[in-house]
Write a structure and sequence with these properties.
This protein is mainly alpha-helical. About 70% of the residues lie in helices and about 0% in strands. The chain contains nine helices and no strands. Helix 3 packs antiparallel against helix 4 and helix 6 runs antiparallel to helix 7.
Length: about 230
């Protein structure tokens, strides 16, 4: 008796990788609040000044989205997602060496925010639309859940790490997590589009599977059920 093993379409691998990427990048982004108190104390800055770092980050993030979309069209999903994650991880690690709040304006407010912009829902959404011909709503919903999952996992983790080891060790660990774990996952498993590995998007009909159509003269079509 032969047992048929059903292979998982690679689109679901892409979905899982996109979910992990969004979870990691946006989880780090949402962890900003965990660093506000230690940054105020360490850099002798006011709450308003530290909040301005976040404000700048939102502006850079918003402005980057159309540019990211254009870059994806030119260079593909994989390159943009991977490079953005490397930029984000590197900037997070370099924050360890910050000695003034103005350095954080540059590292977090600008550089990290460019990484947030590339490793965002825009990139993941393009991946879903390229790899899923059907069930795009389900796939997009799972990707969007990555935002909440990142906030749920990384924000409490950051608070715990800061309380135990301080904010500098925490940024090293977060940056290391992005570079050592997330980046290799994106590099090995993420593919820009199905044609790169010689397959079709999930749910897409092969040309031979499409129902056969026949040309019906207009006079005859008047009496057919489908034209009534």
């Amino acid at each position: 008796m032969k047992i048929k093993v059903r292979r998982i379409h690679y689109a679901w691998v892409i979905l899982a990788v996109s979910f992990i990427g969004v979870l990691a990048a946006q989880g780090v982004r949402y962890s900003f609040g965990a660093f506000m108190d230690p940054w105020e104390q360490d850099f002798a800055s006011s709450r308003g000044t530290v909040s301005a770092v976040s404000f700048l980050s939102f502006i850079v993030f918003a402005l980057s989205q159309p540019i990211v979309g254009k870059l994806i069209d030119r260079f593909g999903i994989k390159l943009i997602f991977l490079v953005s994650m490397i930029i984000l991880g590197a900037a997070t690690i370099l924050s360890f060496f910050a000695t003034t709040i103005w350095q954080l304006f540059f590292l977090y407010g600008i550089i990290s925010s460019l990484g947030f912009g590339g490793a965002s829902g825009v990139t993941a959404t393009v991946a879903v639309t390229k790899w899923f011909h059907k069930r795009q709503g389900l796939a997009l919903g799972i990707v969007e859940a990555g935002f909440g999952a990142g906030q749920m996992l990384l924000v409490p983790s950051s608070l715990l790490l800061i309380s135990q080891f301080g904010w500098r060790i925490t940024v090293l660990l977060l940056g290391g997590f992005l570079i050592v774990i997330v980046c290799p996952i994106l590099a090995f498993f993420l593919k820009s589009e199905p044609s790169k590995i010689g397959i079709k998007a999930w749910g897409q009909e092969a040309e031979g599977d499409k129902p056969e159509t026949k040309d019906i003269p207009i006079k005859k079509s008047n009496g057919t059920r489908s034209f009534v």
